[in-house]
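so the lab meeting is tmrw and i was supposed to have these ready like two days ago... anyway. pasting both below. for each one the top line is the aa sequence and the line under it is the structure tokens. i havent really looked at them closely yet so no promises
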Amino acid sequence: MRANAGARWNESFPRTPSYRQVTPPQPVTINLDQALARDNPPLRTVNPLRVTAGGLRLTGYCPGQLHAWLRLNTGVWLGLCTFVAHSGNHRAALDFRQWLPSSAIAPNASGGRHRHAVARPE
């Protein structure tokens, strides 16, 4: 994993950069329901316990770190975040380093859960 995700980024307009490193990384809370696109669950309403307990849980909120901002050509901001997602029974975990929509990222300075987006760069 590279230390600087924007090492290859050649800024076209230096006065209004599209890529902005966050140094040091900022603690955030990530809304996994907004962060990652998923297929609709199957019509089955009850999953076997092995699926519920052993499958990766990508819903709710989790703590993470914000490392950078990137503005898309549409004006939308993405945040580069690292976080850990756990299985339903917390016996397994997976490390993520993912570009997420700004609406899924909230400040977490006090350790609480915030539902409002982190202020994006101007």
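ok protien two:
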Amino acid sequence: MKRIFIITGEPSGDKLASKVISKLNETNPNIEYLCVGGSHLNLLGIKSIFELKEITHIGFTSVLLNIFKIRNRINTTVKEVLKFNPDILFSVDSPDFTLRVARRVKNKNNLIKTVHYVAPQVWIWRKSRLKDFKKFVDHFLLLFNFEKKYFDIEKIQNTFVGHPLLENNHSNKTNLANIISGDKKIISLFAGSRTSEINILLPILFNFIKMMNGNFKDYLFVFHATEQSKDLIIKKLKVLQINNIEVISDENIKSQILSKSIFAVSKSGTVSLEICNAKVPSIIIYKMNFLNFIIVKFLVKTKYANIINIINNREVIPELIQNECNAKEIYRSVIYLLKSPILMEKQIKDCQITLEEIRSKTSSAGEVSSILAKYLIS
């Protein structure tokens, strides 16, 4: 029986990996799996060697504070991969964890094929990493077509597979009557999946909601959470006396809620592509501690945080980063756009044009699963 070990480093990677494995199981049902993953892979019956939250850290200072714990988990993962002896080590995103494991595994067992999905953003920073990747990664699977040139220059095997969040999934419809009332306009909120992100952004978003409620009575605010972060958000919400907030973690329901939203406020990340794909106008927010911000400012060479803005080299979607990421600025930006339907329509149109440029012509998960299948028989 063929074996695949899957390594993810955060909930978004877990979600992407699950889509691929679901596709792969349709044509190759007799594969044995083991993983470092979360709830999505767990739903497919794949055991994780430890909980994903044990390695989900953000920012340089958070990583430094947890360096020994992370190193221990890298050592444990390498040991378990070698013990499992898979045909393929399939790593997804989170390169500071997943590719460190891949390098050590490849050095100890060169027969294990290493395939990495969601290439490190070398076009943003640390382009020199490519020469190192070439030594231990057999195949990179790219979300964006413009990334190819960077890997082609170093003659690294790569394939543009597109982004699965840009695919239109026709999931089962759920009755939302018990969640939302017909007279409320929905604003979707995305505070991130990592505890460190949530702890910073939640108080800001709560104050934004209070400002909105002070002037309007017809909005419902829905936090889109992961299974891991839902309890944390609900716990922090209990101390507030606000009755027009919901917290949703079910993927199917979140998708439907987003499609019915009139606006979204989202932390910077891949979820912004999902929002654009749903044709919902939005703004991007992000904040980190001062030391992390200084380090990132020094290392990162792009002007914008959001991928849509980076591709267009202009602010298609408004960004409120660091000092501008506060309740007053969020309120001002949201109200300004809600009162400007023409601007919201223009944002949606510009985003759709950009998405068409980076969208795969076929299923991203299908493309990835086909590549994995080829390595299984090679």
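from a quick look at the 2nd one: DSSP finds 16 helices and twelve strands in the chain. The mean pLDDT is 89. will dig more after coffe
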